[in-house]
Amino acid sequence: MATVLSIADAVQQRFAQAISTAFPDAADSDPQLRRSDRADFQANGIMSLAKPLRANPREVATRVLEHLAADEVIASLEVSGPGFVNVTVTDAAILERLAARAADTRLGVGSTAEPGVTVIDYSQPNIAKEMHVGHLRSTIIGDALVRTLEFTGEKVIKRNHLGDWGTQFGMLIQYLIEHHDELGDDTEAADSGPSMSRLNRLYKASRAKFDSDTDFADRARRRVVDLQAGNPETVASWQGMVDESKVYFEAVYARLGVLLEDADAIGESYYNPMLAEVCADLEASGVAVRSDGALCVFFDDIKGPNGEPTPLIVQKSDGGYGYATTDLAAIRDRVGLLGANQLLYVVDSRQALHFQMVFETARRAGWLPDSVRALHLGFGTVLGKDGKPFKTRSGETVRLMDLLDEAVDRARTVVSEKSPQLATEELEDRAKQVGIGAVKYADLSTSRTRDYIFDADRMVSLNGDTGTYLQYAYARIQSILRKAPEGVIPTAHQDLALEPAERALGLLLDEFGATITQVTGTFEPHRLCAYLHHLASAYTTFYEHCPVLKAPSPEVMETRLLLCQLTGQTLRQGVDLLGIGTPERL
């Protein structure tokens, strides 16, 4: 089905044509149409149009209105204040669009006219380490952006950049060889949880020994050389850790309900064969120069606290490589091999300077042409109720699985109180949907760049700006639709006069497509969350003021059922783009 032209766009077009006719020299002026509490819309652009014309804004507005008239979309126009124009639209226009959206599986939202190829890098856990609360935001934000971009028709390539290479693996492999008895009962390996926890403990033990025992540290470094040289025993040990870690990562992703799969996981080891060439090319082109034995890229505008230039080190003085080298190799791979015209990195805000230098280096080297956009989508920190970075009582970082379990436990209590008749299996299924959905929504509803406080009790509340509130609104809508009399079909009767609550809900439903465009333009999922919460709130007002099953006539009942149906469809589609489930009953 073709894209449904929203009422806002229809009014915008009419204003643009009227301005062009009244003032041909100002044909490109933006009417600046906005929703208003004084009417359905308000055109604010007349004020800025009047200044270059050196005319009174009210007089300019009046001239524009001479070329606008009430029609099938516009019910009335009024010049207000110093030169604003208030616009009221017709009930028929609202109902016509509601019917068109309800009849379309995409709710009338069209695909991008010229879709591109976006490579998005997110989640990024480390092999042999359990995922912790710090991985939550990258994973959830990245997943929501993937879903939303794909909904608009963009080709999206997911990249889960695993930390699977470096000195720490020589350290861990050597420790495992020397302390094989600490591996424990192999039967534990069938369960990704205990197995990964054991590997995590061994990592900490190996780090402690590496830091305290110089002889062990030397053996560990030699083991790194063995790994890089392809020594069979060393590679086999490393591969075992990688495989075991991936099983665990997949269990976490399944628990979270995100789209990442094993095929999306590309470790640092994948880029390792490319690093020498990256450095050679940078040095040969003059982009990088030797400084104290290290290969560095310098920037005029980036200096350290002492005022000295802060370089990007692409090869250390001992010949080793760092994160920057791998990231540069990844850019070459993603642009040259995958054909990306947009690179997105959902990574902690503290890495902003790193990505600034990496992107600039890649552009100087010609690996990141002007036609390719590269963005670091930084995000804030998850905090505890004390407003400090979320830690356990012992001061350690909170394990991600523990955090999710806590949310599901809280949700189980809420759901069982709301629906005590549920069988155990159904209760567990809903508790998971509500608990995981609550965690995701709390994260995504916060502006990406801000910190937020993890509070499981607040997250699963049936009231307020929570994912549970949206799920409850959807479930209530499905209950009404199930109770509708047999043979009654939701239908928009376009000759009906709408109540204020019906108009407000209808106009909001018509904004879904514009909201998706905002999210993909800004990469800010909180805009979709805000829209969905506003929609659920508007539905609650409609539900309280406009009886559906006890409507005064069959036509009104069918029209209100259509409003219910489309609100449900929009909530379901919207929260699905956030990666959140919608229980039919709650």
Automatic annotation (TrEMBL):
PANTHER family: ARGININE--TRNA LIGASE, CYTOPLASMIC (PTHR11956:SF5), ARGINYL-TRNA SYNTHETASE (PTHR11956). Monomer. This is Arginine--tRNA ligase. Keywords: Aminoacyl-tRNA synthetase, ATP-binding, Cytoplasm, Ligase, Nucleotide-binding, Protein biosynthesis. The keyword Nucleotide-binding applies. It is an enzyme of class 6 (ligase). It comes from Kitasatospora misakiensis. A motif ('HIGH' region) lies at residues 125-135. Residues 9-89 form the Arginyl tRNA synthetase N-terminal domain. Belongs to the class-I aminoacyl-tRNA synthetase family. Residues 470-586 form the DALR anticodon binding domain. It is found in: Cytoplasm. It comes from the Bacteria. SMART domains: Arg_tRNA_synt_N (SM01016), DALR_1 (SM00836). The keyword Transcription does not apply. It catalyses: tRNA(Arg) + L-arginine + ATP = L-arginyl-tRNA(Arg) + AMP + diphosphate. Its EC number is 6.1.1.19. One of its GO terms (molecular function) is arginine-tRNA ligase activity. PROSITE patterns: AA_TRNA_LIGASE_I.
